[in-house]
Each structure stands twice: as structure tokens, then as C-alpha cells.
Write a structure and sequence with these properties.
10 helices, nine-stranded mixed sheet, 2 domains, Aminopeptidase i, Domain 2, single chain, binds cobalt (II) ion, five-stranded mixed sheet
């Protein structure tokens, strides 16, 4: 049986080719649930509201005055290829688009895929317009095996600059003129334009027990954070924060290293007349759940995983621990989230990486450091992380959603 959450998740993934679209998709869900959009945070906060800045969003449900915070965080960005400001290249009869690589892209996975283009344009008056052209517009063609005979033994070697340039036709218009036409804005002064795989999210496997999609890392967690908040019934001050730029270090106005969440917490405190001491103690009593996908054990590469801490598909959300603080989970945090999970029968697994394998990080440690709020790192186990098309178990998104809901109320 296909899990009832899958349609909602697939709609989210297919509607959100860029961080700006993730925020837009979240906004639609929040709006439908009666959350109030705030243009700024100087006026009195609605009891359920949200605020957007570029590719980041914070949403809240205030709960009781001075109640501790329950924060769920995830990131809106995924590694991808972005079109350069002056992209037009004509080379030996082919029209190509110059690109910039964003984050840790698994480059080979972008070869021979049908790519669309999405993003936003900024007009000279400062207004922004989202666009998404969901058609096969571009492709990065792989070199034929006849011209690269040793590839299967030697491995694919790609020069990051020379071999990643997509073809987008033969006699094409200048990119900026094409963009003006398709978006319908005449005074474009700048743009963010990202390539994306036009293949839609799908169930996978003879038993449909798996799902495959672009950007599961980390839109799956964004989806769970927003829908968890919408459906939560809690007396705590509940917050969902979706940050941009996690894949490149989180240092920006909209990244987890920026002030967005800290500002919101300070504003909530000030509107509830909390003293400095009360604000401090409120943070001591609060928890942040940092949700970002984890590595499931890969059946072809078992030796890359720590065997007693290797998550399986459809066996629940992975609790991520790292003594070197690449993940923020402490033993107290692990105990708290186990109690949360037990309260609603949500299965949990444990992920620890091998000592000889570098471990990725998340917004958890950054958020904990900035706010002084204990964070717990969790995530759905997946394969093919940072590939153009990732995969995970079809039951696990529902497990994460249930965990988020339980966490917000526990
Ligand atoms: Co991630």
C-alpha cells in the first residue's frame, strides 16, 4: 500500500526546483492552514504566522506565554548547477550555457539528463518574479565510450569547469532575451537561474517500497517541518525554520549562521515582556530538532558504514551522533528524542560514521552555537545523497512527520 503522505511530499518536491520555490511551496501550505504572512517583525506577531527572506522562511505557532521553544530546522538548498550572469557560449556549432557548480554536486549524475531552468528574476525596480520552465531545455552530454575506451576501468574523470557545460540548442537566442520572453518581465536587471532535472518524483521498486526524486536532501525535511508545524497541537512556542545555503557553509543572511531565527526568538521574548534572565532560562528549557537526511547503508559499499550504526530503509528516522560535534546530539538530546519517539510509536535508528570516513555536518551545531539551545540531529536515511536523483524508503517520510509532530508537543 502506498503511504498516504507520498502525494503531499511528491507535490512539494515537484513544485520546488530552487530554494525560492521551496519557500513558495511552504508559503502556500501555511497560507491554506491560516498562518499570517508578516512583511516585517516590528508589529505584534500573529499567534500563527510566518516571515520570508529570499530562500529562507520562519513560521511559528506561539503557544503559552513564556513557554519553552520547540524548533524544527531544515535547509531549502540542494547542490545544483547555476547559470552564470553572462552565460552565452557558442562553440563548434553548439549553443551552450556557462554554469557555476553550487555545493557538493555528484557531477556524474547530471550527465545525459533532461534539464529545465528555474529561479527568480529581479527587475530594475527591485521587484522579484519566480519562474520555472519545466521542459527539456538543456543537457550535459557525456563523451561516447568510443572516445574514452578506458572509462569503465579508470573511472569517469570530469574537469569541473570544462566538462560540465550544458548544450541548450544550436541557434538559440541570447539567454537574457530568452529569459525576458519566458518570464514576461521586460526590465530584468539580474537573475538566479538554476538547472534542474525535469523527471518527477516517483515510487520505486517492485513493491513500491522506495521513492526516487531530486532534492530529497533536504526538501523531505522541509516538508515534514512545515506540515508538522501546521498539524501540531502544542502549548510550546513552536517554530519551523527553513534556512538556505547549508550546502555551502550556512554563512549568509538566510543561512543558519545568519540572524533570522535568533531575531525571531528575541522578538517573541520582547513581545511577551520577558526579562534577559527569563529569555536565558527559556532557551535552557528549549529544544531544536535539526532534520537533514542521513546515509542509509549501501548494499554495494557495506564497508563504508559503521555496521552497528548503519540505518536501513523503512526502519525509521536516524538519530545522528558525532562526538566531534559535526552533529549536535548529546546523550541528553538522544534520551529526549527517544522519549518523544516512544510516545507516538515512531521507530528510530542510530547513525554514527566510521572514524576513517569524514562526516558531513548540518544546521544543528550552528543553531545550537548561535542560540544556546540544545539541538538534536535526525534525518531520513537515503542513498545517492547529492545525486541529481536520490532515493529513500517510502515509509520514512511519514515516520519523520510523526516524529516532528510529537517533538513539537512533547
Ligand atoms: Co542536507
Amino acid at each position: 500500500m502506498v503511504n498516504p503522505h507520498i502525494d503531499s511530499l511528491f507535490h512539494w518536491l515537484d513544485s520546488s526546483p530552487t530554494p525560492f520555490h521551496v519557500v513558495n511551496t511552504a508559503q502556500a501550505a501555511l497560507h491554506d492552514a491560516g498562518f499570517v504572512l508578516h512583511d516585517g517583525l516590528s508589529n505584534s506577531l500573529a499567534s500563527r504566522g510566518y516571515f520570508i527572506r529570499d530562500g529562507a522562511l520562519v513560521a511559528w505557532s506561539l503557544g503559552d506565554t513564556h513557554a519553552p521553544f520547540r524548533i524544527v530546522g531544515a535547509h531549502t538548498d540542494s547542490p545544483n548547477l547555476r547559470i552564470q550572469p553572462n552565460p552565452d557560449v557558442v562553440s563548434h556549432g553548439w549553443a551552450q550555457l556557462g554554469i557555476e557548480i553550487y555545493g557538493g554536486v555528484l557531477l556524474n549524475s547530471w550527465l545525459d539528463r533532461d534539464l529545465g531552468i528555474a529561479g527568480r528574476v529581479v527587475s530594475s525596480d527591485g521587484s522579484t518574479t519566480l519562474f520555472s520552465i519545466n521542459e527539456p531545455l538543456a543537457r550535459i552530454p557525456q563523451l561516447a565510450i568510443h572516445l574514452d575506451r578506458e572509462i569503465n576501468d579508470r573511472g569517469l574523470q570530469l574537469d569541473r569547469h570544462q566538462h560540465t557545460v550544458p548544450v541548450w540548442g544550436v541557434q538559440t537566442p541570447v539567454f537574457s532575451e530568452w529569459l525576458q520572453d519566458v518570464v514576461g518581465v521586460t526590465s530584468i536587471s539580474a537573475f538566479d537561474a538554476h538547472l534542474f532535472d525535469i523527471q518527477k518524483a516517483a515510487c520505486l521498486g517492485v513493491d513500491s517500497s522506495l521513492i526516487a526524486s531530486a532534492r530529497l536532501d533536504n526538501q523531505l525535511s522541509c516538508w515534514a517541518a512545515i506540515h508538522g508545524l501546521i498539524h501540531s497541537q502544542s502549548s510550546y512556542a513552536c517554530i519551523a525554520v527553513l534556512n538556505d545555503h547549508e550546502e555551502v557553509g550556512s554563512e549568509s543572511t538566510t543561512g543558519a549562521g545568519g540572524p533570522l531565527l535568533d531575531s525571531l526568538l528575541a522578538i517573541i521574548d520582547s513581545q511577551q515582556d520577558a526579562s534577559v534572565g527569563q529569555s536565558h532560562d527559556r532557551r535552557l528549557a528549549s529544544w531544536c530538532l535539526s532534520a537533514d537526511n542521513a546515509h542509509a547503508i549501501h548494499p554495494n559499499y557495506r564497508e563504508r558504514h559503521e555496521p552497528r550504526h548503519a540505518p536501513l530503509p523503512n526502519n525509521g528516522v536516524a538519530l545522528k551522533l558525532n562526538g566531534n560535534q559535526r552533529y549536535a546530539t548529546s546523550a541528553r538530546g538522544a534520551s529526549h528524542i527517544r522519549n518523544v519517539a516512544e510516545s507516538k510509536d515512531v521507530p528510530l535508528q542510530t547513525f554514527v560514521s566510521r572514524n576513517n570516513m569524514p562526516c558531513g555536518s548540518t544546521i544543528g551545531p550552528i543553531t545550537a552555537t548561535r542560540l544556546g539551545i540544545d539541538a538534536i540531529d535526525v534525518g531520513v536515511p537515503q542513498l545517492s545523497m547529492h545525486s541529481i536523483r536520490e532515493m529513500c524508503g517510502a515509509e520514512d517520510p511519514g515516520h519523520l512527520l510523526n516524529l516532528v509532530q510529537a517533538f513539537l508537543a512533547f
